[in-house]
Amino acid sequence: MDAVINTGDTAWVLVSAGLVFIMTPAVALFYGGMVRSKNVLTTIMQSFFIMGMVSVEFALIGYTMAFGPDVNGLIGDLSKFGLAGVGYNILDGATIPELAFVAFQMMFAILTPALITGAFAERMRFAGFALLMLLWAIFIYNPMAHWVWGGGFLAQLGALDFAGGLVIHILSGVSGLTICILLGKRRGYGKTAMVPHNIPMTVLGAAGLWVGWAGFNAGSALAANELAANALVVTQIAAAAGMLGWVLPEWIRSGKPTILGAVSGAVAGLVAITPAAGYVTILPSLAIGLIGGGICYSAVAILKERLGYDDSLDAFGVHGIGGIWGAIATGLWATTAVNPDGANGLFYGESDLLVAQIISIGVAIALAVIGSTVLFKIVNAITRIRVDENEEITGLDIAEHGERGYNAELFTGAPNFISGKEFAAAGTFDLNHHGAN
After folding, report:
1. Rounded to whole angstroms, how far apart are CA atoms 164 and 219?
2. What is the per-residue pLDDT for 5?
3. Which of 37, 193, 264, 434 falls 20 to 30 Å from 14 in CA-CA distance?
4. pLDDT at 384 over 90
5. Residue 420: its pLDDT value, please?
6. In terms of C-beta density within 10 A (0-12 exposed, 13-18 middle, 19 or more buried), how is residue 301 classed?
7. CA 51, chain centre distance (Å)
8. How many Å apart are CA 23 and CA 210, to the nearest integer?
């Protein structure tokens, strides 16, 4: 019997694409609130510019590289360049038009480089940023998407990544760490208070991410069915557990639970469950989120301080570490009782999946480190990537875009405004916590 388009499935995938699209402006707000006020527009602009730039890139070449017919397990061919031949045909193995799948996957391609921007916030020139992220999308994201989702060699190995732990979070987090190290620390890092200028903005962004993640994970079922329902429920549970997993150790360690810690923990839980959402049951999702929140907090509050790298907004600590844990957890708790097309993990009596997950994590890390380093060197030879000292002092909003996020008169002499130094002295914020170093 020939496959036919199911309108319910199609509607769900299109709605999910819209939900995932919302996540990129949510990232803009999430990151924008955590930088200093002189860099807020630059930070938001980076995510918004990626929305336009990567949409064009994905339509022209990204989709065919990631999902075109496989070439030796390495890349898709160029037969679908410019979405040629996609039309209204039914996606293989599904009940939706291929164009609906294109729209859904385009939103993933947009979001991934936007996540990286948190690692190098407040110190990258816009021209260098735009070229670096364009090349990163073409030469790093597209191949990895093909290897895992497009029938490439990691898929053939048996790796599972339901919605992007390997392709999105490990790749973006490790790339962010690599780029921020190559770029160098912000001026005054570790000596000057660099506190978030608008935490309510960050909370609003986190709320948008949490909502959008419903489409991110449940939409990856590509149908309005029981698998989508499972993915949605385990996603919600893992996010909630991730919040607890972050806030509790933060509370014990610093004596105060913070709203920034709460939203960071929720995002950590969401990251951790992403690769596993279509393969695990309820109780494992709680463990995945709880442990994910705890280890991401440790990476941000302890590991970064000890190693001394300046990952401005903790893209690596949340997405890199959370993605690695989620990919491993998939190899532990995946069960064919949830998804017959998946595999059983170690806790269900089989070890092959865990081995495939560990190999895939190594491949993602290697691609991110080597690829990002090579692209950084190439772009920096074409156009200077790092802003100069005067531009960094002035702030990138003025230096790069000629705009201000706020009217300075609102802050000058205002009785409710306190300096970063006074803010820290008041004991209301831990300077070693999430983006405030």
Report:
1. 12
2. 93
3. 264
4. yes
5. 41
6. buried
7. 14
8. 8
pLDDT-based confidence at residue 308 (cuts at 50, 70, 90): very high
The helix/strand/coil state of 243 is helix
pLDDT at 214: 97
SS3 247: helix
Provide the sign of the torsion angle of the four alpha carbons 350, 355, 361, 367, taken in this order.
Answer: negative
For position 315, what pLDDT does the model report? 97
The sign one gets for the Cα dihedral 371, 376, 381, 382 is positive
Buried b vs exposed e over 6-26: b needs ≥16 C-beta within 10 Å? beebbebbbbbbebbbbbbbb
Percent over 90 (pLDDT), the chain:
90
Q: For 87-106, b where at least 16 C-beta lie within 10 A, e where not — what string?
A: eeebbeebbbbbbbbbbbbb
Q: Indicate the average pLDDT of the chain.
A: 93
User: Distances in Å between the alpha carbon of 423 and those of 193, 195, 426, 432?
Assistant: 9, 9, 5, 14
pLDDT bin (cut points 50, 70, 90) of residue 408 is: low
Q: Can you tell me the distance from the alpha carbon of 206 to that of 89, in angstroms, rounded to the nearest whole number?
A: 36
For residue 71, the surrounding DSSP H or E stretch is: strand 70-71
Q: Which long-range contacts (CB under 8 A, 24 or more apart) does 149-153 make?
A: 149/66, 149/67, 150/66, 150/67, 150/68, 150/70, 150/76, 151/70, 151/73, 152/70, 152/73, 152/74, 152/75, 153/73, 153/74
Res 428: pLDDT: 35
Kindly state the tokens that stand for 411.
């802050």
8-state DSSP, 303: I
Helix (H, G, I), strand (E, B) or coil at 378: helix
Pair of tokens at residue 266? 């929720």
Neighbours of 188 (CB within 10 A): 11
Nearest CA to 323 out of 175, 218, 125 is that of 175
Tens of pLDDT, residues 181-202:
999 999 999 898 899 999 999 9
What's the pLDDT tens digit per position in 310-333?
999 999 999 999 999 999 999 999
Model pLDDT, residue 2: 60
CA separation for the pair 14, 104 (Å, rounded): 7
Nearest Cα to Cα of residue 177 among 384, 378, 295, 320: 320
What is the spatial distance between Cα 123 and Cα 396, in angstroms, rounded to a whole number?
Answer: 8
Residues pairing with 90 in the sheet: 97
